[in-house]
Design goal:
single chain, alpha+beta, 4 domains, five-stranded mixed β-barrel
Length: 455
Amino acid sequence: MLKQILTSTLAATALLISQQALSAPQDPINLDQLLKQLQQGQFEQTEENKQREARFRAEANEQERILREAIAERDRLEKLSETLETNFEKNEIELAGLTDTLTQRMGSLRELFGVLQQVAGDTSSKLQTSFVSVEFPGRSEQLSDLAQKMGSSSKLASIEEIESVWLALLQEMAESGKVSQFDTEVTLANGEKVTKQVTRVGTFNMVADGQYLELVPGTDTVAELIRQPSGRYLDTVTALEQADENPVKFAMDPTGGSILGLLVQAPDLGERIDQGGTVGYIILALGVIGLLIAVERFITLTLMGGKVKRQMKQTEAREDNPLGRVMAVQRKYPDVDTETLELKLSEAILREVPKIQRNLTFIKIISVVAPLMGLLGTVTGMINTFQAITLFGTGDPKLMAGGISQALVTTVLGLVVAIPMTLLFATLNTRSRNIVHVLQEQASGIIAERSERSH
C-alpha cells in the first residue's frame, strides 16, 4: 500500500514539474524549494480529488432519482397494460355477442345486401360504357363507391343508397327509348376538343355534325370515330339530325358499337384495289384501255351503221360510208363483165372490213388475258401466304392476310374486267358483222342486177 502511495506521489511530482517547466522556465532550485513544491502539489491534488468525489456523489444521487422514476413509470404502464388487456377481453366478448345478435337479426338481409353489392358493381360497369352517362355524368362513380363501401366494411346500405341503385336502373331503361339532343365536349379526329350539339339515340349510338361518335373508355366524354362507315350510313345520320317529328331512317347499332366497329374496319373500294398489288393495277389498266377502245368502237359503229342505213335509201353513192364506197365500184366499172364486177366488189368489201372491225380483237384479248392475270395474282398471293406460314406458323392470321387478300382480290379484278370486256366484244362484233353483212348483201344485189342487164 505504501509502495502505491509513493509511486503516485512521484508521478504527481513529475507531472507538476513538467507543467511548471512548460509554463515558464525557472532558475535551478534547491531541495527546500523542491519539498515545498511537492507539498503544494499534493494539496492541490487532494482538493481536486475531493471535488471529484463530491461530483460523483451528486451524480449518483441523480442516477438513483432517475432509476426510481423509471421504476415508477414501469409499474404504472404495467398496471395500465393489465387494465387494457382486461378491457380488450371484455370488448371481445361483447363484440362476439353483438355479432351473433346482428347475424340473428339480419337473417336473409345479409343475402339481400350481397345481391345489392353485386348489382351495384354490375350496374356501375354498365353505366361506364353507356351513352346516357354522357348526358348524365357521375352516375357510375356513385354506384361504384357504394359497392366498394359494402365490400370493404360491414356497414349496411341506407334506404337512400338502395333507392339510388333502383333509380339508376330505371333511368337507364327510360333513356334507352329516347332520342335526345344536348351540348357536350367532343374530341375531334385531329385531337381538338370542341363543344357540339350531340344527338343520342337511346343507349345505342351518338352522332354530331353528320359523324358517328364513340364513348371514351373510363370517362363520360365522347370522340369522333377516326374512321367513319360508308356514305350510305352517314346519310342516315344527316337525316336524323335534320328530322322533325316525322320518322326517318337511321342506321342504328343495337350492340352499342360492336357492329359499327366492324363496319369501320372493313376496307373501302380503294383499299380493296390496293390489296391486289401490282397485278391488280395492271388488270385495271387493261380494263380501262379496253373500255376506252370499246367506247370508241361503239360510237364509230353506231355512226357508221346510221350512214349505211341512209345510203340504202339513196341511189347515189356517197364516199362517207362503207356502203357508198362499195356502190361506187359499179359506177367506176360500168362495162366490165359480171365476174369481174364481183371480184371488184369483193375487193372493196375486204378493204372496208378492217376499218369496221378495227381493235375488236384487242378487246377480245383483254377479256381472255384479264382472268389469267387474276390467276397469276392468286398464285402469287398464295405463295406469299405459304412463305408467311413457313416463317411464322399459323398462330397469327394477320401475317397471312396480305397474301390471301392479294389472292382473292386479283381474281375478282380479273373477272370484273373480263366479264364486261366479253359482253362488249360480243355486242361490237355483232354490230360490225351486221354492217359487213349489209355490204355483202348490197354487193350481191349489184351483181344480180348487172347479170340481168347483160342477159
